[in-house]
Structure formats: structure tokens, C-alpha cells
Amino acid sequence: MLSHSLRAHLLALWILILASAAATGYLLAEFYAESATVQVAQAELQAARACREIGDRFAFFGAGWTGSVTDPDDTLKGQLTDVVVTALASQPGVEGGIWTAAGGAAAHAFPTDEGTGPKTDLPAAEIDTIRRINADALSADRPVATRRASRTQTLVVQGCPLRGPIENATAWTMTRVHTDQGRAYGQLLAGFGFLAATVLGAALLLGGLLLVLGRRIARLEGELARETQEGELPRLGATGLRELDRLVEALNAAGTRLAAARHRAAEAERLAALGQLVAGIAHEIRNPLAAIRLKAENALASPDPVRARAALDLVLDQVARLDRLLRDLLSLTQPRRTALAPTDLGSVFRDCAHLHDDLARTRFVRIVVEAAPAERPPLDIGQIRRALDNLVLNAIQHSPPDGTVRLSGSREESRLRIRVSDEGPGVCEPVRSRLFDPFVTGRPDGTGLGLAIVREIARAHGGQVRLAAPPPRATGTEATAPGATFELDLPWPAPPIS
Question: What EC number(s) does the entry state (predicted)?
């Protein structure tokens, strides 16, 4: 997956391109609107000139008339049509006519129409607009103009009152400004086309870059996630992109150096562990051997058979201690194979409590079995019994008089949690980080192998053992109780669905 920073930069670049395109498109549209506005204004001026031209021709036509006319006859209408044709002959794209309040259209002409013949019929779609503009001009007794805009064109209509022998007569002119034609419209389309091409090209380029980088980096992620021996970095293949290949070469070189360093560190760790183990064994054996030698010398030198027998009894006790030490060492170093079977954990808890009850009584300590799951988890009962024996013995030895050792178990989703807690002083900080290492103990008489054996049993079950926080005391305060709680965290898979 691409890093957030790279995605952000590419996305910001794409947004900038879009913003620039939007601003340029807006300016093009505004320029075009300004151009269209200028064209409409010019059309209004042309319509006004044409309307005045009709008025001037009409005044010349009616000069010298006596009397007045309300509704022109056909002959007069023909003459008025000639007046309009003459007036509009020099006004390209303008049609117009003369209107009377009594009879409506008295004349109409469109001499510059580019159709197949002279246009003599009034435009039906605009007849209402023509009627209204003439009525407004007659009512106001002054020229009146209006415009009507649509998607492709703007209609400009001008009306102006006429002075002459025909009563309540007005002249009108009309022209159209086609906003979807002309040079400005072509420039707008060209500009938008160029913008669309550049934005689409940039989007495709950036999208292709993101796709290619995403696939290459996803492939590198997959290769890096591949499991290798001893956790070494896998060897990465070339991506085909020069920049990424430089990174791949650097990672491969770093992996080679890391493998060499890991090998050296493993060797050093093995030597250190071996040295620690040897030192621990030497320490644990030296004290019993010293005691055996001293007591044997005393037994040989003393003529009192009672003292000699007591010395030999102590020698046997130290030999038994050495035997236990060797058995624990063998148990710690031998590979563990688990024979899993459904186990009644409550029964295992009760047996363990009963086994150590005598020792607990001598130390005035109670062993309490609090809870156990009703289901039967898959466990190696022999190994779990031994792990619990070590944990319970450790808890009894650290509990104060009148203290309580608690055993409990629960199922939490797909995990089994077995807890053994005491009310002793807890684990001191220097020992806490190395609590499960061999020969690490907080008691002067301890061997430091019990918790190490518990750890190996937990690992054999695919789990772990840890020092958990003790439960709070029910005293009304929020302070946690002293003591230690060891927790076996073991897998408990769900039963198969039949």
C-alpha cells in the first residue's frame, strides 16, 4: 500500500490541477458571457436604430397628408410595407413592421433574411412579445426595449411610437443574437475541449502512476510478509521502476547485513545462555557438595556414632536435593510432546489443592478453588498438573501466615485463562523482567527452575505464562492488593460444527 505521504502529495497535485482547470474554465465562461453581453448590447443598439429609421421613413411617407387613418386598408398596408423594407434594407438580421392599436399588424418585412424568398409572415412564436412591446411603447409614448434569453439565443425587440396620419401607430424591430454560434462560442468550445483533454490526461497519468506504484509496493509488501527461516528478510525482486529498484537494492543489502548480525547475535546469545546455565548449575551443586564434604569429614573424625549417623542423614538429604535439581534440569531441557485430551479442570484444581493442603496448613495458608469452566478444554493433564504444582508451591512459599492462595480458570473467547494468586509481598522489580529464566528466584532456598518449567509447559500447549496484575481488595479503596497472580494463557479452539 502506498504511504500516506505519497498518496497525499499525488492527491494534492491532482486537486491543484482540478482547481486550476476550474478557475480557467470559469474565466473562459466569464469572457464568453462578456462577449455575449456585448453582442446583445450591440443588437439592442441596432434594433433601436432600425426602429428610428422606420419612424423617419414613416414621417417622410406621411408628410403632406391631411386627415387621419385609424385602420389602414390593404393598399395602405402595401405602401407601409414598402416603407419598412426601405428602412430595414441596410440593417442586416433585423426584421420589423408597423403596428396599430385598432388593427394590429399594418406592415411587416425582413429584407435581409437569407431564406429562399422574402419573409412576409409575422413570427408566430414572438407575436405576443411584439403585441406587448407595441402596447408598452404606445402607452409610454417613448421607445421601449425588451430581451428574452434562451439556451442558444437572445431575442431583442424594440418598440417606438410613430407620429403621422395613422392614429395610435407604433413601429417595432426585432433581431436575434445566437449565443451558440460565432467566434467567441468557438473559442469557448476550444478552450473547454483543451481543458478537458489536459485534466483527463493528468487524471489518467496520475491514476496510472498510483495504480502502478500501488501494485509494485503491494508486491513488495507480499514478499516482505513471506515467512523465512529464522525471521530473516526475504530477497526482493526488481519492480521495473528505477526509483523503487534502488529501494529494493538497499533493502536486500540491509537484509544481508541483518542476517549476518542476527547470526552473530544468536551465537553470542547461545554462548551467554550456556554460560548462565553452567554458572547456575555450578552454584546449585557447589553448596550441597560443600555440605556433603563437611559432614562426611565430621562423620569420619567423630567417635560418636550418633553424630556420625546425623551427619550421614544430612549427606543423604543433600544428595536428594542434587537429585531433584538434576531431574528439574532434565525436565527443562527435554522436548515436550503434549497428549491433549478433554480435561475436567475443576477436578484438577481440587486435586492440586488437596495435594498441597498439608504444606499449606503448616504455614497457616488456605488454598481456595474459586471457579473453573464447566466445559472440558483439550489439555495434557500430566503437564498441566505439574505446572499447577509449581505455581501453587511457589504461591504457598510466598504467602504470609493467614494468607490465601486462589486457583481459578475461565474461558475468554478462544483462550483458556488459568490463574494462581497469592497475597505475598509480590515480585520485586529486579527479578520481574527475568522471572521465567532458569535459576532466577526471589527465595534464598529456591532453585529458580519451577517457573521456567511452567513456561515450557505453556509453550508446549501453544500458549504462554505471565505475571498478571493481582485483583483489587474488597476494602472500599481503589488500591490494589499486594501479592502475585500468575496466569496461564492457553489456546482453546471451538469444537468443530457437526
Answer: 2.7.13.3
Query: Which residues have C-beta within 8 Å of that of residue 67, sequence separation ≥ 6?
Result: 165
Instruction: Give backbone dihedrals phi and psi of 489, rounded to 5 degrees, phi first.
Output: -110, 105
- Determine the Cα–Cα distance for residues 420 and 430; give it in Å rounded to an integer: 22
List, for residues 382-422, the tens digit of each pLDDT value.
888 888 988 998 899 889 999 999 999 999 888 999 999 99
Q: What is d(CA 356, CA 5) in angstroms, rounded to the nearest whole number?
A: 62
Residue with grid cell 537484509, as numbered in its chain: 255
A 10 A CB-CB count for 76 gives 15
- Judging by beta carbons within 10 Å of its beta carbon (0-12, 13-18, 19+), is residue 384 exposed, middle or buried? buried
Q: What angle do CA 398, 479, 394 make, to 5 degrees?
A: 15
Look up residue 66 and give its three cell numbers.
Answer: 391631411
Q: Name the 3-class secondary structure at 96.
A: strand
Q: Give percent of the chain above pLDDT 90.
A: 19
- Distance between CA 387 and CA 383 in Å, rounded? 6
97 DSSP β-pair partners: 108, 172
Residue spans per domain, the chain: 4-185, 242-333, 341-491
Report the length, in residues, of the chain. Answer: 498
Question: Angle, to 10 degrees, between the axis of helix 74-88 and the axis of helix 4-61?
Answer: 130
C-alpha cell of residue 85: 423594407
CB 99 within 8 A of CB 87: no
CATH code for 242-333? 1.10.287
CA angle 340, 407, 429 (to 5 degrees): 105
Q: Residue 119 in contact with residue 113, Cβ under 8 Å? A: yes
Going by the DSSP 8-state scheme, the letter that residue 234 receives in this structure is P
- The DSSP code sequence of 2-50 is --HHHHHHHHHHHHHHHHHHHHHHHHHHHHHHHHHHHHHHHHHHHHHHH
CA distance 234 to 380: 37
Nearest to 151 by CA among 169, 129, 177, 125: 177
CA-to-CA dists, residue 136 to 47, 52, 404, angstroms: 16, 16, 108
Q: Phi and psi for 70 in degrees, rounded to 5?
A: -95, -45
CATH number of 341-491: 3.30.565.10
> Is residue 283 within 8 Å of 439, Cβ to Cβ?
yes
Cell (9 digits) for 122: 409575422
Residue with grid cell 484444581, as numbered in its chain? 349
- The pLDDT-based confidence of 498 (bands split at 50, 70, 90) is very low
**Phi and psi, residue 65, nearest 5°:** -70, 150
Q: What is the pLDDT of residue 274?
A: 56
138: cell is 404606445
> Which residue has cell 554460560?
275
**Gap between the Cα atoms of 171 and 159, Å rounded:** 6
Q: What is the mean pLDDT of residues 6-13?
A: 68
